[in-house]
Each structure stands twice: as C-alpha cells, then as structure tokens.
Amino acid sequence: SMFLDDSPDLSNAVICSPYLLFKHKDMFYKCPYALLFSNQTQLTDDLLSETLTQYTAMSSDNTLHHNSRVAVFLYSAQHFAGVVYENNQLLLHKTYHRYTVRAKQGTVQGIRDGKGNAPKSYGASLRRYNQIALFADIEKLLLSWADTLNGCSVIFHRTATHNRHVFEKLKEKLDNKKHKIRTIPFTTYRPTLKEAERVYKLLTKINKVFEKEFQNAVDAKNSRENVEPDPITKPSQQPKVNPKSKAVVSTQSTARRRRRKRRRKNWWRRHRSCGCGS
User: Fold this and answer.
1) Exposed/middle/buried for 76, CB within 10 Å: 0-12, 13-18, 19+?
2) CB 155 within 8 A of CB 166
3) Catalytic site residues?
4) Of the chain's two ends, which shows fewer C-beta atoms within 10 Å, N or C?
5) Higher pLDDT, 51 or 192
C-alpha cells in the first residue's frame, strides 16, 4: 500500500459529509467517512493510518481500492439485495423480491395496516404473507452467511428504521458488531444487484482530487465555524402582526367558502331540473 511508508496528515483533514478530505505527500484524497470510522469511533491519525494500509493504488482510474472483505445490504419495501466482496472481487450475492406494496400506494402492507381500518381483500392478505416471508428469507440468508460476514471488516446497510430488527439474530454471531455494522451515508435506489455493486464501488474507493476542491472544502468549513448563531427571539420580542392583515385574510377565506357553497347549490339545482339527480 502507498500509505505504509508515512502516516497521512490529519491536521488539515476536512469532513465534508459524507466524505473525508485529507492530504498525504502533497496529494489530496477524498473517501467516504463511514468507511473509515463508525459513529462510535473518534478520528485519530493512528486509526486513519491503520485503515488506509488496506488500500492499494490503481493508476488506471486514479483511485485506491479496498483490499479487505466488505458486505453491502440494501432492503427497501419489497426488494432486497446483498453482496460480499473480498479483495475487490465479488464473493457472494443474493437478491429477493416479493409483492408487498400495492401499486401507487407507496407503503408496505404492514405500515398500511398500522394506520387503522386494515383492508380484508385477497390482495392485502397476500401482501401480508409476502412481507412475513420476505423477512424470513432475509433473516435465513444472513444467518447462513454469518461465518463469512464475521470475517468482514465492515458491513454496510440501507434499511428503514422499522425493518432493522432483521439484523438482530445476525448481531448475536458477530464479533465487534458495534463498530462493524454501519449505515450507508448517501442516497441509494431500488435494491438490485447492480445497485449494490454501485454502492460498494462508491464506498470503497479513495479518489484523488485537485487542490482546488480540497481548498473549497476548507473554506466552507471555516465559513461555517465563523458564522455567529442567530440570537434567540424572546416571546416579548416577537414581531407584532398587523390586525388589519388578519382581517383581510379572514375576509378572503370567507368569500372563497361562500363561492364554493354557491357553486354546489347551483350544480344541484341544474341536476334536479334535468332529472339526473333522481
């Protein structure tokens, strides 16, 4: 690895979410922050140096690629995709799809049932069954991959909060699970094998950037630190509202209600006169 000779300098490192920009031997690099550190770890020179030794230089595309084992899981509604890479080679992969979301509804059947007045149609029953079956399939897959996942340096996932309990049984078989399982720090799309591969490439690459991009991130950080917070406005200091403006708004809304009522009344009169309402 090109980072074995000398430790990178973190004195000028900038966190520009979701990326970390740093300087090493007069070169500037950008990498996903979540790949190097979990939410529970603190940014230190030793930790960064230890993590960066797992990368090798790839002169063809001007990037650095991760050499250890990394897993990526995407789970959204009725789609699931999981991949495991080792030494930048696809080791395991699996995708699932089950019908759990009604067309144009936008939410899974379980969330729809939780809002009350659950539908009793055949389609709703099928979606409930598929939701339970999909959860069981994912849980069974994760347990079957437990030994492989235990050897991963990091496991990334994009899962809704109400579905994250799918990882509970897997966590019981993982070592250092607190720092190993991390969320993906950027937007992902429908879980497919192609999307999981794209996410892996984005997460495990350290790109070389120009000095201008690094300097822009530094300037943005300094400007945020120098901005003074707005003073909190006390209730007594709140701006006064002109009572005349309230009256104008009230008058306009009343006029709109009257026009709507008049249109409805005229509509019913026309329909009764032509016999359509009977």
Assistant:
1) middle
2) no
3) 109
4) C
5) 192
